[in-house]
Design a protein that fits this description.
Elements lengths: L1 H7 L34 E4 L4 E10 L2 E10 L6 E12 L5 E14 L2 E17 L4 E7 L6 E3 L3 E8 L4 H20 L5 H23 L4
Antiparallel strand pairs: 1-2, 1-9, 2-3, 3-4, 4-5, 5-6, 6-7, 7-8, 7-9
Helix pairs in contact: 2-3
Keywords: Signal
């Protein structure tokens, strides 16, 4: 994964300072909030959809690039998607950011996992409603959701800290515990409890680790 990201660093767009064109603004009763550099260094979470996302800056040598990390904490269907932004544009009023991105695909063959950048590009819009509230759309089925330009609109709250641990424990853990309890139903009581606890904790910890990606 790290080696692959090093290669992507040569083509990934840099979002960190938005090209230096966006400066912090102070909203008044007559002005509406606009994007600032700080907005791209925060997490976005929505409890109703059980999803969260953020832009992750990574470095490879002297190169700097960005990843779009999307976490779907929807019970046993929980998963994390990694995207590489290929284009980022702001509306004239600087209230909407349109991002085009390609997903990183993982393929496991004979125990060996390889990564590649998907050919298809997706687009999503993030609109700033207030200093802490933003809106974005989710598209796809409940088994394969992602940020898009169609689908249901959700209100995301901007936060400094990752919501991965709280979301994983609140939404993923109960669902995985139930699934593993059913899967290990034939085991003796003591063995069943141990297996359920082990696999549930592994699933929760993996979800947290994957969302809080460290380059």
């Amino acid at each position: 994964m790290k080696r692959f990201m090093a290669k992507l660093g040569l083509v990934a767009v840099a979002l960190g300072t938005l090209g230096g064109v966006v400066a912090p603004t102070v909203a008044s009763a007559k002005t509406k909030p606009t994007f600032t550099n700080t907005d791209l260094k925060r997490y976005y979470k929505n409890a109703t959809s059980k999803t969260a996302f953020y832009f992750k800056t990574y470095k490879s040598g002297k190169k700097t690039g960005e990843m779009l990390i999307f976490g779907d904490f929807n019970g046993k269907n929980a998963n994390v998607k990694y995207g590489v932004p290929t284009s980022v544009k702001f509306s004239k009023n600087r209230r909407t950011m349109t991002t085009k991105y390609k997903l990183i695909e993982f393929k496991t063959t004979k125990g060996k996992t390889t990564t590649s950048l998907a050919k298809k590009a997706y687009t999503f819009k993030l609109t700033k409603k207030s200093s802490t509230k933003f809106s974005a759309k989710l598209t796809g089925s409940k088994f394969n959701r992602r940020l898009g330009t169609t689908g249901k609109t959700y209100s995301y709250t901007k936060t400094k800290t990752s919501p991965a641990k709280s979301y994983a424990n609140k939404y993923v853990k109960p669902a995985m515990k139930k699934a593993y309890t059913e899967a290990f139903d034939s085991l003796p009581a003591a063995d069943k409890q141990a297996a359920v606890t082990k696999y549930t904790n592994n699933a929760v910890n993996t979800m947290i680790k994957n969302f809080n990606y460290k380059s």
